[in-house]
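>> received
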Amino acid sequence: MKNIFKKYSIYISLIAFMVVGCDADFEKTNTDPNNPLVVSANLLLGQIVKNTTDITYSTFNGGDMGSCWSQQLSKVQYNDEERFKPRQGSISSVWDNIYTGVISDAVEMYNVAGNEGNNNLQGVSLVMQSYGYLLLTDLYGDIPFSQAMNATDGVISPVYDRQEDVYNGVFDMLDNAVALLGTGGTISGDADLVYNGDASKWKKFANSLKFRALMRISKKTNVSADLQQLIDDGNMFSSVDDDAFLNYQTENPNANPIYETVVFGTRNEWKVCDVFVNQLLTTADPRIDNMVALNEDDIHRGKPSGIADVPNDNYNYTNVSAIGDHYLKGDAPGYFMSYSELEFLIAEAITRSDITISAGTANDHYVSGILSSFVNADTSPGFLAGFSAGTGVALTGVEADDLAKIATQNWVGLFCQGFESFIEQRRTGYPVLPMPLDALASDFPVRLNYPNLEGSINAVNYDAAVQIQGPDLLTTKMWRLQ
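>> returned
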């Protein structure tokens, strides 16, 4: 018996030793180095940026429900969207991916960067969160905001915040971003696909984005003091070198989504709308060769928006102009915001007497907006002579006429920036668009309806939002458009 007990005692001791030994190195030996539980905040940035432009530049999102609705593009097949019958799957995709692939990931980046003491990356995170929320509220109206990212606290059915409150919350985010940027921490140049690690450029982007957002609500509420403060501070985009965009790569799967669909995917139904082509032809716009391809007859020819029975003899794959090659390149940039757009917005604000400037005029900023959009379009400077002073382009000093021209030139400059061209055209009303032929609705869309799933998984808050904002229709005007 003693021998048996002694033998078992030895076994127990060995087992205990092995257990203690395993516990001592448990985390080291049971951690997969290829799947870390916590990653550097910098490693999250690149995917957040790409997720954003992948969503907005998708032909099925920003193309169908953006560029087609602003009548820059028109389709020669599968064109229910431009006739105002969008795909509910695309509507849900925009909502889901902006919340999960942009805002949620940016919040995670903010938290990790905070643990790392990286103020600069926290600032970048707030800029990307702001961009995501602004896009969502400009497309849908009232949206989950204050409780949107509180799932870890048990909030799985967030309330919908009024659009006015979303805007005010975003303004606070952008102010906080500006306060953080430039105060410490490294932004990896390899991870930063927009500014290569330059925090000062991100600060300019934050301020310029705030100016754009203020202009979006400027017809609803007085924002003159806030606009003027941004002008006086002078830390917004100052040239095309400050443009916020993602440089895509030349080949699939990291190429511009328009290229991936139209060229790589050989989906050639997206053509140029006659409204856009006629605008360029009427004003002898030298950008036309970059923006609009020649058709089979070697002319620039657009297609009217709508038309149920296409392709047909009048409008088909070969006799309607395709998108210009400059915009079909794999490495065509995916824009968040450009200096050109900012200059048009400043020109508009001056014309409406929302701001004053110490040097220059509304016309100076207007012409700058036009010329900088030419630079972005890679047009030779030799073509620019006299264009901004030409008939149908030059400002006249008559406020209503000048506002229409500023808005129209901004719309031209936003070519293939689908959602932004749609949002701006609906905000300004310019250019004035004809109702699509064979339209499946009696009026133009001003928003996207909420994803169908919201009415079931978040029914109480969805119903409350619809009660306040209005029926969940494409034509229901959100707060800033009322």
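>> Strands lie at 73-75, 143-144, 160-161, 244-246, 270-272, 334-337.
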